[in-house]
Amino acid sequence: MVRVGVNGFGTIGRRVAQAVTLQPDMELVGVVKTRPDYAALQAAKAGIRIYAPSSESLEAFEKAGIRVEGTVEDLLSRVDVIVDATPNGVGEKYKPLYRDAGVRQVFQGGEKPSVADASFNTLCNYREVLGLDSVRVVSCNTTGLLRLICTINRGIGVSSVSAVLIRRAADPREVKRGPVNSINLNPPTVPSHHALDVKTVVPSIDIVTSAVVVPTTLMHVHHVTITLKRDSSRREVLSLLEEAPRIILIDSGRTGIKSTAQLMDAVRFMRRNGDLPELAVFTDSIHVEGRRLMLFQAVHQESIVVPENIDAIRALARLTEDPMESIRVTDETLGLTKEIF
Ligand SMILES: NC(=O)c1ccc[n+]([C@@H]2O[C@H](COP(=O)([O-])OP(=O)(O)OC[C@H]3O[C@@H](n4cnc5c(N)ncnc54)[C@H](OP(=O)(O)O)[C@@H]3O)[C@@H](O)[C@H]2O)c1
């Protein structure tokens, strides 16, 4: 059993902590929470051990009647791997503490690539990160792009990629982010940072991305154009995607799903927490003409990186050298079946 701690218990941290408790080869030792709010109360009720970032913050938890096991240093002394799910850039500040404690580290996509020994996506570079001290699971958008690119690259070959990202403005629980009445170029320059982020995992890829932010909280949508290494067909692409783990195909004609709202509404009735950790590709949008492939895909930003975080722990701890075996265990425990309808 690998002993795991999670620092940061927000959108990503809560989901990763829950996923760790479901793994047969991992033990969740505890989580670090800064404030004794509803998420801390729920964690305490679920029997998850809570640690505070510093001894100064212990008092607030005591006042709220929430038992705290110690500080982040205490947690670090009890784990083999720490998953950092703190806000963008905060993980870098914790890095020296993690290193001094001698624990392996999994960071998130909001950190600079230099925070870790490598950036990570299971389908692309699992074997390359085996036994490293630290990895960075790339962002939700980058994870979605990489699942598609590495699947198509393995089956047909990818010459170049061009993607337009339509990004959600905020997560559903966030109360201060926007826009509420605008479509913002984000950034106004091309390429957006997502292309560079994809290259942190697959350096040789020729890719350009651009992005806008729109007033929605549910999902991101990408319009992706791939130039293939050889002529292909819609049938060939479909069968590759049907076989690939963590990609589900949404048939708009059969299901009536033509939007992120309908997709997430359907998912609420069939997945843990109403999450969709799989990349959703809209079947009817798949267009193949010679070497050109175009499609729409949707990314549930709150959950898509959760399976990759679990695989990252497995790779660092060398629990299995085989990415497909890690994917099998992770997906089975998280209930990720290829069929959702
Ligand atoms: N949200 C997404 O869509 C998404 C998708 C993929 C990757 N990511 C990446 O995942 C990382 C976490 O993002 P998130 O959306 O989960 O953030 P979040 O919801 O804001 O959660 C951050 C958590 O970190 C805690 N925290 C704040 N300051 C801390 C500190 N100094 N020490 C320890 N914990 C601290 C917060 O505590 P309190 O709850 O007590 O305030 C909160 O639990 C970021 O790198 C982000 O880029 C996010």
CATH superfamily annotation of the largest domain: NAD(P)-binding Rossmann-like Domain
What is the name of the CATH architecture of the largest domain?
3-Layer(aba) Sandwich
Low-confidence stretches: none
Total helices: the number is 13
Q: Overall mean pLDDT score?
A: 97
Total beta strands: 16
CATH class of the largest domain: Alpha Beta
- What's the alpha carbon Rg, rounded to whole Å? 20 Å
* Main sheet specs: 8 strands, parallel
- What coarse outline follows from CA principal-axis ratios? globular
Q: Which characteristics define this entry?
A:
binds NADP nicotinamide-adenine-dinucleotide phosphate, 341 residues, eight-stranded mixed β-sheet, Dihydrodipicolinate Reductase, domain 2, single chain, eight-stranded parallel β-sheet, alpha/beta, Rossmann fold, 2 domains
Structure report:
This protein has 341 residues and is of the alpha/beta class. It folds into 2 domains: 2-138 and 305-334, 3-Layer(aba) Sandwich (Rossmann fold); 140-299, Dihydrodipicolinate Reductase, domain 2, CATH 3.30.360.10. It has 13 helices and 16 strands. It has helices spanning 11-21, 38-45, 58-63, 72-76, 90-101, 122-125, 140-155, 193-201, 234-243, 252-255, 260-267, 306-316, 323-334, and strands spanning 2-7, 26-32, 50-52, 70-71, 81-84, 104-107, 118-120, 134-137, 158-168, 184-185, 207-214, 220-228, 247-250, 279-282, 287-289, 292-299. The strands form 2 sheets. Strands 4-3-2-1-5-6-8-7 form an 8-stranded parallel beta sheet, sandwiched between helices. α5 (90-101) links the parallel β5 (81-84) and β6. α1 crosses α12 (306-316) and α7 crosses α8 (193-201). The longest helix is centred in the middle third of the chain and has 16 residues, at 140-155. NADP nicotinamide-adenine-dinucleotide phosphate binds next to α1.
